[in-house]
Every structure is written in C-alpha cells, then in structure tokens.
Amino acid sequence: MTLRGLMLVKQLAVYHPQSNDAAQWELVSGWDSQQAALTKGIAFDSKATPTDTFAGAIGSECIVEASSASPFAYGAGSVTDGKIHRG
Questions:
Q1: In terms of CB atoms within 10 Å, which end of the chain has fewer, N or C?
Q2: Which residue segment(s) compose the domain that 54 sits in?
Q3: Residue 44 pairs with which residues in a beta bridge?
Q4: What DSSP letter does each residue of the chain carry, written as one string?
Q5: What do you get for the CA distance between the two ends of the chain, in Å?
Q6: The whole model's pTM is what?
Q7: Which residues contact 4 (CB under 8 A, 6 or more apart)?
Q8: Is residue 73, in this structure, part of any structural domain at all?
Q9: Is residue 86 part of a domain?
C-alpha cells in the first residue's frame, strides 16, 4: 500500500477471516503510532527516512510504502528486495 502525504497516520490494521469461521475476523497485521517501533507483520519504507522508524507523519511530497513484513511469492514476475514486495 502506498501512503502519500500530507498525512498523519495513527493506526493501520489488516484483518483476515478466521480459517475455521469465515464470519469471524482476526487481526493479522497492525501498527499504532503510540508504539511506532512495534509492528505486527507490517514493514514501512520511505526513501526520505530509510533507516528511521516510521512515526506516522508523511510530508506533503513524501511517499511511504507499507507492505508485508515477510517476503512472499505473489506469482509470475513478482520481485522482492527483502523489504518491498511488488507483484
């Protein structure tokens, strides 16, 4: 997911149906600005601050990529550099 500024992100959550009950959903990835260094299954990347922890603020001309924290195969032609997963 591409986050484009000007933006102040407070929380990001991804839910998925439970395998044993599709009517019930569970949190599979999450991030909260109050504990910015702690991520659950989400990786952030920005060329402006490649080594800093994402704190939630995105400048007016900035882009932050949010992706799965684990590399995954997405099909023919997918590319991963270990940080960003493009399919």
A1: N
A2: 2-68
A3: 66
A4: -EEESSEE--EEEEEEE-SS-TTSEEEEEEEEGGGTT-EESEEEE-SSSTTSPP-SEE-TT-EEEEEESS----STT-EE-SS-EE-
A5: 12
A6: 0.69
A7: 58, 62, 63
A8: no
A9: no
Asked if residue 81 belongs to a domain, the reply is no
- If one counts the domains in the chain, the total is 1
Q: What is the pLDDT of residue 61?
A: 84
Q: Token pair of 78, please?
A: 């997918």
Kindly state whether residue 87 falls inside one of the protein's structural domains: no
Neighbours of 32 (CB within 10 A): 15
